[in-house]
Amino acid sequence: MALKDEKGLNVIDVFWDGWFNSFKTFTSLQNGAEQKSLQAFETQKEWIQATREQLSKLEEESKKLTSEWKENIQEVLNKTQVDFGAQNLTEWTDKFEEIGQKAEAAVFNPSKVTIDLLSKSQAQLETALKTAIDQQQKNRAEVLNAIGGYVNQLKQTQSGVLKTFELYNPLIAK
Questions:
Q1: Apex 37 CA angle, 32 and 38, nearest 5
Q2: What is the pLDDT of residue 81?
Q3: How much is the pTM?
Q4: What dihedral angle (degrees, nearest 10) is formed by the CA atoms of 58, 63, 65, 68?
């Protein structure tokens, strides 16, 4: 076996370069998986934000309806001029407003708390993932450098061994 083929390529270099390029391809696949994970977190963040915005819109609409409801009740009570007296009329509308506010609080507060918890836990998980990815990338870079040095040593060592065989065995040189 000759150290170089007909085209002058070093067979050992070709073999080890091919192996090392395959290893690099594997590490780039890991980078792709990490990017997909980060994209999933971005999608979750967008979903949580959209849900928060929808909840705020619903709450605003509910407050608007409660306000309209109070105004309509006030108007009806004014038109009917029921003998409740001015004090009672104000008490009635205040009670209706209080009921509306309590209903809003009962509906929207748990949802807000849930969205806030989701947002905070998602942010913590994203931070943890980014930290882990950064550490993995540093570790992969170190391993890649170490393996690159090891591959270069292997190529030099094998080339030296084959050169020695070529010098002492003319059949290998052909």
A1: 95
A2: 62
A3: 0.65
A4: -160
